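Record type: monomer structure entry
Structure origin: computed from sequence
Chain ID: A
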Amino acid sequence: LYSWGANRYGQLGLGHHDDVDEATIVVGALQSKEVKTVKCGASHTTVLTTNGDLYSFGRGCRGQHGHGSPRPQLCPRIVGCFVKNGPVVSVACGSNFTVCCTASGHVWSWGEGQCGQLGLGDYKTRSIPTLVSIASGDRQYRIASIAAGWGHAGAMSDTGDIFMWGLNVFGQLGTGDCRIRSEPSHVLHVDDASFCVREIRCNGHFTAAITREGALYTWGSLDNGEAKSRTAWS
């Protein structure tokens, strides 16, 4: 793993607060680990290794690094919750929050929650990972991958169903309205309730999904955060 750039909160994982203008290897706890995925929030970073361990570092004032402390984490540190509840298979960072899913299909979230982006049914901040219920009616879904935008998140099940929650001012949840959801909502295509998704991505205030047939759909902000938006798949 290499990192560079702004480093006020230790988000480069190099053990200090100095900005770095060249790619610099990140050692410490990651020195003997093989990295699979890196995701960045506004000022925090998560690293997923090939064996499913999750590490994080950077800003923690909203609990976004998941170590239970508001202090910045300057070096990579394993997120202890998943030593027991892992391995982690997918992770995503919003601006000041983090979501992940494990091999068992469970979703966990932590960090800032004032937009409902943790999916826990309230608007509280959590400094440690908390289990999120992904259900529709009496059915519990097994989640295969996770995504996060500025203040919203999405999860894709192993059956191709998608669930969205969090900020929805621009229709980024795809629910056909602009109402915030503090719990995961099962999102269905307006024309075809059996639509199956194979990949979902969130960014800023919009969402995109690719179906198993190869079609691309987008919804949410159309103009870099301005008022133009689509509230459903198109």
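Annotation 1: The first helix runs from residue 81 to 85.
Annotation 2: DSSP finds one helix and 20 strands in the chain.
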